[in-house]
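Students often ask why we bother encoding 3D structure as a string. The short answer is that it lets us treat folding as translation between two languages. Here is a chain of 56 residues written in the first language.
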Amino acid sequence: MSESKTFTKDPTCGMNVEVATALHAVRDGRTYSFCSDQCRARFQAVSAGEAVTCGS
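And here it is in the second language, the structure alphabet:
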């Protein structure tokens, strides 16, 4: 029997990432998953109300 994998979207770049193996950050009690340390760092660098985009 195979285990199903859970995916979510990286809030910075929109890439689908596997929750179990992704990098994570917590903001306001919510856990976010990221494809890379660069996306996680960009997310952490902005305040909660600002839009975040990777590569800008």
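Translate back mentally: The mean pLDDT is 88. Keep this in mind for the problem set.
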